[in-house]
Design goal:
The chain has 171 residues and is mainly α. Helices cover 70% and strands 0% of the residues. This is HEAT repeat-containing protein.
Amino acid sequence: MRELIQSALADADPDGATRWRAISLLQKRGDQETFDEAKRLCSSDTANERILGVDILGQLGRPGLPFAGRSVPVLRAIAADERDPMVLYSVLIAFGHLKDPRALPSVIELSAHEDPRVRYGAAYALPNVLGCPPDRDGLDALSRLAKDSDADVAEWAALGLALTCGEGLTD
């Protein structure tokens, strides 16, 4: 596990192939040790390590996996206290992967963030955590994002509105 963590941290690109290969292998491990290490990384002093911890939790907690119910509370705590926009972006992408409506209050709150990268993450996450029938406050946040001044945010939110409660948006 430590080698996989180090390999992921060595890849400077947050979307890098080496990094995500390591995260995928950590997801396959799916054990308590990996979950604990991801939580430890989430409380690191460095944003790069916090992002990696969040990304691992976003994979370990996917529906049907052993940590599905345990990742969201950890990520909600991070969302409440984190200041780094890229960490918040990763938290929101993780919420989208987890598809757990318990994340909705955090996503709604972050949908009004000043950084467009964070709002983009919220536009991605919202359709996945709205529930069905969709939560009214969540739909309002998604509608607001569809009018965002950042074109990427607005386009993603508009797509999310079009596909709400549908299939095909989540990954």
